[in-house]
Design a protein that fits this description.
It is a single chain. This protein is an alpha+beta fold. It contains 13 helices and seven strands. Helix 3 crosses helix 4. The two termini are 42 Å apart. GO terms for molecular function: flavin adenine dinucleotide binding; NADPH binding; thymidylate synthase (FAD) activity; thymidylate synthase activity.
Amino acid sequence: MSLTPEQLAEIEAQRATPRPTLRAVSEGMEARLYKAHQVLDHGLIRVIDYMGDDAAIVQAARVSYGAGTKHVSNDEGLIRYLMRHWHSTPFEMCEVKFHVKLPVFVARQWIRHRTANVNEYSARYSILDREFYIPQPEQLAAQSTVNNQGRGEVLSGEESARVLEMLKRDAATSYDHYEQMLSQDGQQGLARELARMNLPMNIYTQWYWKVDLHNLFHFLRLRADSHAQYEIRIYAEEMCRIVADWVPLAFKAFEDYRLGGETLSGRAVAVLKRRLAGEVVTQEESGMSKGEWREFCEVWG
């Protein structure tokens, strides 16, 4: 992770000057504020600001649902009830702002989650750093033969070395040309907004990403899943650790009902009931497609 001495000094200065506040704070998140957590080879994620805690979720739920939640005896039980029944609004009362440094191709996946506020580092105004994501050999894999958007067998030593060499060489060459095209050092060259078009997708960008907890949970449900692409998944896994410190009760409910849970179609429920009654059900009798049946059997046997 490449933070400059100036950036590290700024982080230490921010953490060394706490300010009194009357607002609710999360002790777990206070310990996380401003700290940079390394992701991939040059990436990072850190919390810049946040609002709310577990109590804010409970407070919002009791205002909006009133007597309907009085039978829930404690805060944890209420939060689990809200998560179990897909009540989203109370979780929207909490927000967090991240500073993320990530490869451009990961950013293009990430930005598909449109329910957030984003401000990205501008390569029209500034010159991008010479930093590229180069995968570890164990992350270099061939195309999956059963999943059109996934990875299959890890590349052999010789093939892995060949691919790594191309990745490094292409990245270095493209950045050399980027520098040579820029209008600087007395050269007319190209404007920054034009010179950047030759850069590869594995160069690093940065942004501030602000999102409420409900939509953050949706992001994490998809991107922290074992089927998600590795490079975005480890950002999501680091964010899971941060959220677990911020709102531990809400994260436990999310982990149980979303990350560790399964959603069943009506046909799948019918098959499970028939199985529990002792009946043997085949794919042809289930009414499911081959793909849905395969996914069903991966979970239920």
